[in-house]
Amino acid sequence: MDGRTAVVTGGTRGVGAGIARALAEAGAHVVVCARRPPQPPLEGIEFAPLDVRDPDQAQDFFTALPRLDILVNNAGGAPYRRLADADARRHARVVELNLLAPLTVTLAAHAHLRRTHGNVIMIGSVSGSRPSPGTAAYGAAKAGLEHLARSMAVEWAPDIRVNTLVVGMVHTESAPLHYGGPDGVAAVSRTVPLGRLATPADVGAATVFLASDAAAYITGAALHVHGGGERPAFLDAATANKTPQGELR
Ligand SMILES: NC(=O)c1ccc[n+]([C@@H]2O[C@H](COP(=O)([O-])OP(=O)(O)OC[C@H]3O[C@@H](n4cnc5c(N)ncnc54)[C@H](OP(=O)(O)O)[C@@H]3O)[C@@H](O)[C@H]2O)c1
């Protein structure tokens, strides 16, 4: 990654900070952007203020940037909120952050990426490929994001590669909000085939791979970083194909 510049949106904490660190360790010059600076600052990583939902701010940011090789659209997320518990405008804000903002930012970065034959990585979620009660607008936006990446990959080939990381549950600073305390995290970890949540560094390593020349022939693809995904719930409920102790044969 020496000589390459990477921008990671929402790279100030959580998954994005893991991605920023991994790209910096691989030799890239990394700029993270978010509305507020990282606390504490991330060593060796530049910060620039940006609200990814604002097209003018995004355009100004990339116009001022001397070079761009790798864009990681990571800023995103949603609170747990059932559909009927909020009006449509609040759900639309979730779609704005998780689908429209990556489109806004990527379009603002397009001229740079065409010049450098760069690449884009969308940070998707398993919520985009299974029902997501409590985060329905988020899941729909992430499904759309993956589709957007596939179309961009075709429109912009052969100059720019565009891929999605479909991320499962990650152990970030915010894990207690989603899963509860250590007991909640341990219980949720037991539902993952690999037996643990991902770390931000796991997502960072996959990002470095997709951004690197090792992935030169990979575009329009989705790479699942989910530890094996979700075991089908019906297998536990079914009474067929079990041992007398109730375990699967
Ligand atoms: N955590 C998980 O288990 C998990 C699982 C699957 C996928 N993901 C995906 O991974 C990505 C990061 O998630 P996370 O859990 O690390 O989230 P997080 O800890 O809440 O961090 C979100 C980052 O995005 C920034 N951000 C939020 N709104 C922004 C805006 N309007 N403009 C610019 N920056 C903004 C935040 O900084 P400011 O608030 O200062 O702006 C922060 O840096 C998201 O796309 C999420 O969907 C996460």
The tally of structural domains comes to: 1
Main sheet: strands, sense, barrel: 7 strands, parallel
Radius of gyration: 19 Å
- Count of helical regions: 8
Describe the structure concisely.
The protein has 249 residues and is of the alpha/beta class. It has helices at 14-25, 55-64, 88-116, 136-156, 175-179, 182-189, 200-211, 234-237; strands at 5-9, 29-34, 46-49, 70-73, 119-125, 161-167, 222-225. It has a 7-stranded parallel β-sheet, with helices on both faces.
Describe the structure.
Belongs to the short-chain dehydrogenases/reductases (SDR) family. This is SDR family oxidoreductase. The structure is a single chain. This protein has a single domain (5-237), classed as NAD(P)-binding Rossmann-like Domain (Rossmann fold), CATH 3.40.50. The chain has helices spanning 14-25, 55-64, 88-116, 136-156, 175-179, 182-189, 200-211, 234-237, and strands spanning 5-9, 29-34, 46-49, 70-73, 119-125, 161-167, 222-225. α1 (14-25) crosses α7 and α2 (55-64) runs parallel beside α3 (88-116). It has a seven-stranded parallel beta sheet with strand order 3-2-1-4-5-6-7, sandwiched between helices. The mean pLDDT is 97. It has eight helices and seven strands. α1 (14-25) links the parallel β1 and β2 (29-34). With 249 residues, the chain is an alpha/beta fold.
